[in-house]
Structures are given as C-alpha cells and as structure tokens.
Amino acid sequence: MSTQHTLLVFNLLPVASNISTWWNFGSMLLSCLALQTTTGFFLAIHYTANTNLAFSSVIHTTRDVPYGWIMQNLHAMGASMFFICIYIHIARGLYYGSYMNKEVWLSGTTLLITLMATAFFGYVLPWGQMSFWAATVITNLLTAVPYLGTTLTTWLWGGFSINDPTLTRFFALHFILPFGIISLSSIHILLLHNEGSSNPLGANPDTDKIPFHPYHSYKDTLMLTLLMTLLFITLTFAPNMFNDPENFSKANPLVTPQHIKPEWYFLFAYGILRSIPNKLGGALALLMSVAILMTSPFTHTSHTRSMTFRPFAQVMFWTLIPTFIIITWAATKPVEPPFTTIGQMTSIMYFSFFIANPLLGWIENKIMTP
C-alpha cells in the first residue's frame, strides 16, 4: 500500500476530537507486538529446546552471536514494556467505560489471556533456576482439577516430570501463540473501528469527529517515540532491571530457591493464588483475577458510561490501583506474616472493586435522578 493510500485510509477513519493521551496506548501495544515478534524470531533460530542445551544456547546468543545481546535484552525488556502498556490500557478502559463496547472488550480480554500464556511459556525457555521452579509451581496447579488434574498435568509435561518434552512443547506453544495474538489483535482492531472509539466524557462520539491523520497519528508517533526512548535508555543503563538473579543459574531440580516467584507482570495473580490456602480455591482465584474483567460489560449499572462524573466510582478505582501494586509487592515476599495477611486483604479489595462497581452505579443513579 502506497503512502497516499495509507493517508487516505487514515483520513477516512474519523475519531472523537476529545480523545486524550490515554488512548495512545493501543497503538503502542501494536508496536510492542511487532518488536516482540521480530526479536522472538531472531532468538528462535538460535535456541535449542533441550534441557541440557537450552541455558547454554541463551548464553551463546547473548555472548557470541553478533548483536545477540541486544535482541535478547530487547525481547526480555520488551515483554515488560508490553505488560506495562497493556495494564495501563485496561485501567483506561475500566475508568472511561470502554468495556461498554462488549465485542471489543471481550476480544481484548481474550487477547490478554493469550498474551499471558505466551509470556509464561517464554519465561520457562531460558531454563534458568527460577524459570524451572516457576513452571513447576504453576503447572502443578492443574493437579487441583477434580478427576482430570493428574492427566492434564502429565499431558502438559509430556511425562511424569518437567523435562525435554515439556521444554519442546513450551517452545512450540511460545512460537505458535504469537500468530494467534496477531490474529486476535486484527479482530480487536476491526471491531474497534466498527464500533468506534470511546472518549473521556463517555458521550456519543458521533457528534464531533475529526480525521485520525494528522490529529491523532502525530500523538501516536510522539508517544511511540517516548516509549522507544525509555526502552533503549533502560536497555543501556539497566538491562537486567526486571530479571531475577536466580535465573542467571542453570535449572537444577535438586536445589529449590528460597523464594519462588514468576515475572513481575504475573505477581498480582500469583499473590492472589498465595493468599488462599486451598489449592483448588487458589487456582480458581488466579483464573478469576483475569477472567473477572469479562464481567465488566454485563455488570455496568450506571447511566453514565465514564467515571469522569462518578465520584464514588472514582474512589473505588483509585483504591484499585494501589491495591494492584501492593499485591504485586507482597507476592515478592516470603510466605509468612505479615505478607500473607497483606496479600489476603488486598486480594479481597481487588475483587471488591468488580463487585462494588455495579452497586455504586445503582446508588449514583438514585442520587442523580431528580
């Protein structure tokens, strides 16, 4: 497609005139997806899915392959940037009621679940100490499924323990799932353009629209430039900021780390899992911590779409943000008081937001109705 045709498409894509910077994170996520796909393909051609060679192949890529260290760190750092952007994207959707576009929201939530599965499989591939034990803990949750748990776990492992078949399967899934993510992203964008973007006021966007280019394409370019600048500054000065020191050692099934934890972007769900002593209850809570997002379009009771004019809902939302951060922080600590108590309290507060939001909507409707 020529530049003129591209500009014509952008000009024929009218959007609301009052869309703020929070709406730029969608295009930033597409850029992160492109970055992860490109660097991931480069790393895949140098990776060996074998428990004896996987760790060495990663070291070889980093040290011996020309520019391999850049690709390796870009892929690892890009995953963190991806999740930072997606969590902000979801928070914006919750605050401004973007979930009222049901098809768009449900496709986005499905995309999030697929992305988290892909990131989990990728985290195991370096076959570091923390990768191995995080995979052991998380995959063992399947054994909590009544009747089928042991069968499912054995099938996922490809045997009776995590070994070569497990690593081969995880590598295959980590390579294949991005194609599904690209397809889901295309569906998500098509549904979005069909429904139209929401706006901060929650008003009907059809009343005042402007062309996407140049009014919003320039804002996207600016935000993308800032994102890439931040990514490369972090890559240059703190490339291991998000890496666990345990993962710089090769996996050893005979030595258990003092504290097992996944990557930071899974810690909120892991913290909720840890807060419930029962194994099946913890596994269900972990799934619900993400799946509960799908309920938002069906539990919205307020006459107002956005929280801009809902003070009670704003209080709940701005309580949810520090709650999310505290759960993440508590999950990095040992399973002992007071961290277990903090995890349990914040887990209750996390789910309370999704329960209280429809109740607050009903109360606000009563107050605002003359």
- The whole-angstrom Rg is 22 Å
Q: Hey, roughly how much beta strand do the residues contain?
A: under 5%
Examine the secondary-structure arrangement and name the CATH architecture of the largest domain.
Up-down Bundle
Mean pLDDT: 90
Q: The biggest beta sheet, please?
A: 2 strands, antiparallel
Provide the structure class.
mainly alpha
> Total strand count, please?
2
CATH level-3 fold name of the largest domain:
Cytochrome Bc1 Complex, Chain C
Helix percent reads: 55-70%
The CA-CA distance between the termini, in Å, is: 55 Å
Shape: globular
Strand order of the largest sheet: 1-2
Number of domains: 2
Number of helices: 15
H/E element order:
HEHHHHHHHEHHHHHHH
The CATH superfamily name of the largest domain is Cytochrome Bc1 Complex, Chain C
Give short descriptive properties of this protein.
370 residues, mainly alpha, Cytochrome Bc1 Complex, Chain C, Helix Hairpins, two-stranded antiparallel sheet, 2 strands, 66% helix, globular
